Amino acid sequence: MSIKVLLADDEQIIRTGISTLISWDELDMELVCCAENGQKALEYISTCPVDIVITDIRMPLMGGIELIRACANAGFSVRFILLTGYGEFEYAKSAMHYGVRHYLLKPTDESQIIQALKEIAADLYTEQRRRRPFTGASPSVPAQISPQDPIEKVKLIINEELSNPDLSLKWIAHNKLYMNENYLGKLFQKKTGKKFSNYLTDQRMQYAKELISQNPDIKLTELCQKTGFINNPAYFCTSFKNYSGLTLTQYRQKPFQ
């Protein structure tokens, strides 16, 4: 199965860069068309179906959102990677209604695009296996499914990285999800009702309480190491008191009262 990809961007330098820097054969993909706007992209898709479209959000004649909407209305089964700029969150989020979940902040590099392509490829191979009997053959791209909802992905990453002192919204956006940090933060707050920083602190403090309940004599340094506060034990103690209503010493004594 060779996955067909279309690139739509009104900037020639972007089209040239993406088309030449990515090793399409290694991804088992084929870049079948480079369009300078959404209208030309739609004309191509209407006659030659594609699997993935990488599209800029703003282009003359027809932008990325309009292209996504047109494909959805026409019933085309296409996955999108949306290239966005700063300050375009309100405009870009309308694509969420059409299932778009890959948003890359321009200027981007090929590693971010490749990661997004691999994630979509894994989904496509999984869907392909579900539609046909199992033959024992392994696809060239492994289908490893993490939750589809980006916010569920964020929660999963938080649980896996609680001890990481560098864990932040920016770290997740740039190193794990390859999404616009500002967009991801607003989406997270909309979905959870909490700012990312508050949610992260709550998860870390809840984990600290679990560690203390398992071992009331656990050292502060170990608590800080396991909850990502290794460089700031004072801040850990303040956060713990704000979360639990008790100092660390008071909470240690609580199970024995």
From TrEMBL:
Pfam families per UniProt: HTH_18, Response_reg
InterPro entries reported in the protein's UniProt record: CheY-like_superfamily (IPR011006), Homeodomain-like_sf (IPR009057), HptR (IPR051552), HTH_AraC (IPR018060), Sig_transdc_resp-reg_receiver (IPR001789)
Record domain HTH araC/xylS-type: where: 152-254
Source organism superkingdom: Bacteria
Compartments, record wording: Cytoplasm
A GO molecular-function descriptor: DNA-binding transcription factor activity
UniProt GO BP: phosphorelay signal transduction system
In-chain residues carrying the UniProt-annotated modification 4-aspartylphosphate: 56
UniProt xrefs under SMART domains: HTH_ARAC, REC
Record domain Response regulatory: where: 4-121
GO cellular component: cytoplasm
Protein keywords: Cytoplasm, DNA-binding, Phosphoprotein, Transcription, Transcription regulation, Two-component regulatory system
Chain's role: May play the central regulatory role in sporulation. It may be an element of the effector pathway responsible for the activation of sporulation genes in response to nutritional stress. Spo0A may act in concert with spo0H (a sigma factor) to control the expression of some genes that are critical to the sporulation process.
Name by which UniProt lists this protein: Stage 0 sporulation protein A homolog
Organism for this UniProt entry: Murimonas intestini
